[in-house]
User: Which sequence fits this backbone?
């Protein structure tokens, strides 16, 4: 690898690490930010802001992909991903100096959401630029290895944000951090921005783009060429459903759902769960480069498809093994007891709530919510029409309640009473309220989590090279960015809420896994049949 | 490659130190969307002082 190639990879990856750092800061500090910026809002305004926050995460990223992809194909990769990092860095910095709700009223959350939207837009444009830029600098037989460094950036960005947050917290103390210190990690991003911009300014434009521009062959209408012509649109669609959708659900399952499952379903304390997940992520991170490099030898497709297939075949037994290893008491209680929810089927909703703004108020929905959040697997039985739902745990029967049209304080009292009755009955049946730390088999849990992360590296390590190789230089940035961000933003981002809805609907805490299994299965089948191997493709053949 | 490996080991050691030290107070769950980005969870809300 030449010094210039090393610089290209380093500069692209470093900038992308900082972009993820900026993006994850917001997630890691969400509780404090909510308190600072949204706590004074009435319920109606909070509802609108929740929708906007949802849009910032899900809707805007693909728009960023289209907007910056188009720019990147018209004016160049270098200047476009210089713009994305400027937008991301400045938005993050402004969050750090933005007055809160108590100071400037509703303008504070409005500006904050605008900044968040800008961050989503920038993130949508960053990845495609970095991947394209690195791939167009890489030798023909090293694209997988070179681009795989970019694939490590999401994990590294997450850790970097946690390190800065905790460093600040430790230095100034909890109280000061909650009051003003939370701003420091956001303000620090200006220094990271300066470093990134300096490095990126010193880099040369992609040679493939320079050549194409010199020959006057750049696209005048990348969006029309990418999505308006079936020849290319069908490849975009294949890249989405035959590659990135499956890759996204395997990624989110291995990194985020595993943590959610440990803490929420298995009731492992947050500190232990964080440590176990972090260890597995750090062990797994080098495998991004291992599988990226391997894909230069044996092909991208076999590795990505094997990752999806293993996810399909092993998620159920692996997550069950996780339960046995992390909370054996819960596993034993689930095997021993039968819990039945009897309800009028017309009362029960599919509790899909991606924005978090829908309130489920029927007695059936409330009963299922309480059981699902207690990690109780249950059976459903049909009850008489109009009768309130009930839960039977062993010999104890508890009647649920409806909160529709009931005053808030009465709902609060009923909720507390109902939850206590369910908790008491579950305790009697042997369900632990928390995982016993002495019984958490940490070695086994780490091995299982590492396996899940290695599946992530299999599907994610070679994906940048494969996406780059599917499209010609003139529309590469646009064409590869959109399927990547729809796949990861939508298919991946909707995983937690879809999984919860399935668990609550079916009464089995493992059934949420059907979502990633079905999506990864779809990708495996479509990918195997329709997606062609790209490792030997000459990416400049159509220039 | 050796430099990268050493750099990664140092980064990993630092990250683990932070996570051990951070314990329960670190949120590693990634992005927050919709309602969870707007409403502070009860326990977090009680930790943080009121907005001024």
Assistant:
């Amino acid at each position: 690898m030449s010094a210039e190639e090393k610089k290209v990879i380093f500069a692209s990856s470093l900038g992308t690490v900082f972009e993820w750092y900026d993006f994850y800061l917001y997630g890691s500090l969400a509780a404090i930010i909510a308190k600072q910026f949204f706590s004074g809002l009435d319920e109606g305004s909070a509802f609108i802001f929740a929708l906007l926050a949802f849009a910032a995460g899900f809707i805007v990223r693909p728009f960023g992909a289209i907007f910056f992809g188009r720019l990147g194909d018209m004016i160049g990769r270098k200047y476009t991903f210089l713009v994305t990092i400027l937008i991301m860095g400045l938005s993050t910095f402004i969050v750090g100096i933005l007055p809160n709700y108590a100071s400037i009223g509703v303008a504070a959350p409005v500006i904050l959401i605008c900044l968040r939207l800008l961050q989503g837009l920038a993130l949508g444009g960053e990845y495609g630029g970095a991947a394209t830029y690195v791939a167009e600098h890489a030798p023909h037989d090293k694209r997988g290895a070179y681009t795989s460094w970019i694939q490590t950036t999401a994990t590294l960005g997450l850790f970097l944000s946690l390190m800065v947050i905790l460093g600040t917290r430790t230095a100034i103390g909890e109280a000061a951090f909650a009051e003003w210190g939370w701003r420091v990690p956001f303000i620090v991003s200006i220094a990271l921005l300066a470093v990134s911009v300096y490095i990126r300014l010193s880099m040369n434009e992609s040679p493939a783009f320079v050549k194409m521009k010199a020959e006057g062959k750049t696209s005048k209408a990348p969006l029309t060429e990418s999505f308006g012509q079936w020849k290319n649109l069908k490849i975009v669609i294949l890249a989405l459903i035959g590659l990135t959708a499956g890759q996204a659900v395997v990624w989110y399952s291995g990194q985020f759902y595993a943590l959610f499952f440990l803490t929420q379903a298995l009731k492992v304390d947050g500190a232990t769960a964080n440590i176990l997940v972090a260890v597995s992520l750090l062990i797994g991170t080098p495998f991004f480069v291992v599988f990226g490099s391997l894909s230069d030898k044996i092909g991208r497709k076999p590795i990505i498809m094997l990752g999806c297939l293993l996810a399909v075949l092993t998620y159920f037994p692996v997550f069950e093994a996780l339960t046995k290893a992390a909370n054996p008491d819960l596993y034993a209680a689930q095997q021993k007891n039968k819990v039945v929810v009897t309800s009028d089927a017309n009362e029960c909703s599919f509790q899909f709530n991606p924005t978090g703004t829908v309130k489920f108020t029927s007695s059936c929905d409330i009963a299922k919510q309480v059981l699902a959040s207690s990690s109780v697997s249950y059976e459903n039985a049909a009850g008489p029409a109009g009768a309130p739902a009930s839960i039977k745990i062993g010999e104890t029967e508890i009647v649920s309640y409806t909160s529709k049209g009931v005053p808030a304080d009465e709902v609060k009292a009923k909720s507390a009473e109902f939850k206590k009755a369910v908790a008491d009955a579950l305790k009697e049946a042997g369900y632990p309220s928390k995982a016993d730390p002495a019984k958490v088999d940490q070695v086994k849990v780490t091995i299982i989590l590492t396996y899940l992360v290695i599946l992530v590296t299999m599907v994610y390590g070679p994906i940048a090279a494969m996406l780059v190789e599917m499209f010609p230089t003139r529309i590469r940035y646009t064409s590869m960015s959109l399927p990547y961000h729809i796949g990861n933003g939508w298919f991946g981002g909707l995983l937690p809420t879809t999984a919860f809805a399935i668990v609550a609907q079916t009464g089995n805490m493992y059934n949420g896994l059907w979502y990633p299994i079905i999506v990864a299965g779809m990708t495996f089948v479509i990918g195997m049949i329709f997606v062609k191997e790209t490792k030997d493709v000459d990416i400049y053949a159509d220039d | 490659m050796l430099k990268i490996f050493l750099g990664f080991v140092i980064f990993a050691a630092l990250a683990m130190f932070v996570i051990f030290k951070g314990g329960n107070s670190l949120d590693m769950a990634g992005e927050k969307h919709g309602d969870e980005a707007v409403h502070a969870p009860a326990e977090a809300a009680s930790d943080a002082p009121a907005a001024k």
The first helix of chain B runs from residue 2 to 22. Chain B has three helices and no strands. The two ends of chain B are 50 Å apart (CA to CA). The helical segments of chain B are 2-22, 35-38, 42-47.
